[in-house]
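[job 4471] stage=fold_predict status=RUNNING
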Amino acid sequence: MGNKIIEQIKQLTAKNHNEVVANRRWLHQNPELSFEEIYTSEFIQGKLKELGIEFTTGIVKTGVVGFVKGRNPEKKTIALRADMDALPILEENNIPYKSQNEGVMHACGHDVHSASLLGVAAVVSQLTNEFEGTVKLIFQPGEEKLPGGASLMIKEGVLDNPRPQSILGQHVFPDLPAGKVGFRPGMYMASCDELYLTVKAKGGHAALPHKFTDTVLIACEIISSLQQIVSRKARPDIPSVLSFGKINSTGGATNIIPDEVKIEGTFRTMNEEWRAEAHETMVALAEGIAKSMGGTCDFEVRKGYPFLKNDETITNAAMEAAIQFLGKENVVELDLRMTGEDFSYYTQTIPGCFYRLGTGSSSGLHTSKFNIDESSLELGVGLMSWITINMLNEQ
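[job 4471] inference complete, writing structure tokens
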């Protein structure tokens, strides 16, 4: 039975490949920022209508949720998620389907995710006699921006009526060539918090240091000292990263020490107790250093996405299905990553599996020249279709 369905899926994905590529290219040409995915949402709705698939709209404004019902639709539900938003990046690719929205680009592959899920919708809607249960298609806004579209969709009931038994998410991975996929049962991705510090004191003429408080020096001391929190405080078995990517002074110059210096950074880890402890330690340390040097430090921690932990049973089952579909040589186990993903909100609520689709690329995610080998779209559609149907048919 399984081999028969796999063959049907492969035939359908090959037949629909050009349509999936065309959809991906339209989405790539028309990127929209987080929580602004108006035309993207309308495009997806139009495609679902063409397929005759029932859907609802308006969840977190631009979100779309579709339903494909097999035999005994109430028996079991599996949710599939694709994010829709793009990044504020100016595209530098010289391609026919280059972004037409200057300064906005699908540099994280969400165009691939949405086009793939539309492709899955087309496949499973033609195979409703081959599975029991319901496939819930979640087209999600705002993955790239706090508080994360996933958290908002959950609050608005995306996991209700019907409630899925599990959820799958597929994400492009340029480090893997097209034709391969990657999985990791258990802990996979880190929590991610944004750090905003403002160092304040009375500045002045740089040539007269005895008449002012050096906010730049305070800022440097804070950054240097905060690094000790990871190197000296974190347990060695808890991966942690603390990085600062931006430092800016208001009114500073070669001969002017400013009244304010702003610092921005990120803290990532994989343990909630340590995460909370680190937040308190960072704030206390920064405030103490600033005070000891004659200034103050306003320290804001914007708590971001939680860690992403794949359900081991669901993920192992997905890996086995992938091996059946692709062959063992094309399924790899992924390393831990300190990057973050708001799919983690789903996995903290119901069992889930977030896996990676090899797309090949000479440029990494979130870069101005990121692109994919479009042959990977056929695999992305086919594999997700097979994993879904296989899980729905499990007893």
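[job 4471] summary: DSSP finds nine helices and 16 strands in the chain.
[job 4471] exit 0
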